[in-house]
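This section describes the prediction task in plain terms. A model, or a person checking by hand, is given the sequence of a single protein chain and must write out its three-dimensional structure as a string of tokens. No templates, partner chains or ligands are provided. The sample shown here is typical of the held-out split.
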Amino acid sequence: MAIALFIGRFQPLHKGHIAVIRNLIKKYDKVIVGIGSAEKSRTKTNPFTADERRVMLEIVFGKEINEGKIEVVKIEDKPSDEEWANEIISKYQFDEVVTGSDWIAKCFEGKKPVKKIKLRKGEVLNGTNIRRLMSEGNKEWEKLVDKKVANYIKELALKEFINSLPS
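The expected answer:
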């Protein structure tokens, strides 16, 4: 059974993440989706808690999670890249890391097979851009995330919240 590991901060979960995860579900028997920097929240770069990010994943992938095709796990940062990668390898059973991040690829180099992927629309479809649009009150961010995820984020009333966060 082939198992992939895909790690993201999902601040917030956007259409690029969703496309990658949907593609991985087709190619692997199981996908472990790691919520990176799980301990970080309520800052401008990490406004959402790990639990809120998990809810976003459940909104989109609830069926696949319930069927065991996706396992969502929390991954906290560690003092060193080596410690971070080693802890992940010791905690979770997976065959390959799939990532668009050079940093993540480097962390697992020589430890686990890494499949590097190209993420679509990177300059527009990324968390930094989406959070900026949200903080500006620009509703264009809603087009970059799943409609149900956008509704969930609006329920959290995060525009004012994000603007009040420390850097």
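For orientation: The two ends are 43 Å apart (CA to CA).
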